[in-house]
Amino acid sequence: MTENKQKNNSDQNWVFIVVQDKSWNQISKFQASKDISLAAQSNQNHCEVPIACGSGACMVCACKVISWMEFVDAEKFWKQLIQPWEDYILSCVAGVYDKYFDEDWYYEIIIQKMI
Ligand code: FES
Fold first, then answer.
1. Cys-Cys link to 6, which of 10, 31, 78, 106 (CB 3.0-4.6 A)?
2. pTM to 2 decimals?
């Protein structure tokens, strides 16, 4: 696996989200936000992650977390009403733990779209 953690020498938030498609191609990379779900962030950054229920109940937004799962709060914005597979999140309700925005390291959280 590529090292996706580096020392951050600036005052900026250096938590980034990388989105891959099902074929492992990187289709987007953007600076993470602590205030909205991973699906909403992706959509704001022109990387479509489909959302149907928007409440953790249908799996349409399911994404696999390829790296830094420990950074992802699977229920940051709402409870998961159904349990996704291991290493997957329901991106409409998941977000990045706030504490990681204060770290002095550059991180890339890699998620993979299923649709
Ligand atoms: S859109 Fe239904 S679980 Fe996320």
1. 106
2. 0.88
Cβ of residue 36 lying under 6 Å from some atom of ligand 1: no
User: Do 65 and 109 meet the contact criterion of CB atoms below 8 Å apart?
Assistant: yes
CA of 55 to the centre of ligand 1 (A): 6
pLDDT given for residue 12 in this prediction? 65
Residues 82-97: tens digit of each pLDDT: 999 999 999 999 999 9
Q: What separation in Å is there between the alpha carbon of 27 and the centre of ligand 1?
A: 21
Beta bridge mates, 40: none
